[in-house]
Design goal:
single chain, binds zinc ion, alpha+beta, hypothetical protein PF0899 fold, three-stranded mixed sheet
């Protein structure tokens, strides 16, 4: 399950940013993940529960926004959303398509509690 590795690097990044900002704790972590990343949101939640104790993020809320995969057909220029496995053009059946979105994976925002 590669979600553990992903979540570990998310938590490392969040921890570093929060400490540099002098925050007391992290209250929310917002992630954006493209569906082509083959990341299961439930597994990210599970990894978060397992890895966050004893970090500044241990009481944070994790929110994950999944981005639908979207491609453009190189033959007819049609743009379409699709699932992870089906990337052929629904308009002309071409397999020559270019992925426009769906490989995102980033921390959109974190919210922290600062000292009074
Ligand atoms: Zn097409």
């Amino acid at each position: 399950m590669h979600e553990f590795g992903l979540m570990q690097s998310v938590l490392d990044n969040v921890e570093k940013s929060a400490r540099e900002a002098g925050a007391l704790k992290v209250t929310e972590i917002r992630l954006v993940i493209g569906e082509m990343r083959e990341v299961v949101a439930d597994s990210m939640d599970f990894a978060f529960e397992a890895l966050s104790p004893n970090t500044l993020s241990e009481s944070a809320t994790l929110s994950i926004t999944m981005i639908r995969a979207r491609s453009r057909c190189s033959q007819c220029n049609h743009e379409f959303e699709h699932d992870r496995l089906r990337r052929s053009c629904p308009n002309c059946d071409s397999l020559a398509t270019e992925l426009l979105a769906g490989k995102e994976m980033y921390i959109d925002a974190i919210e922290v509690e600062m000292p009074e």
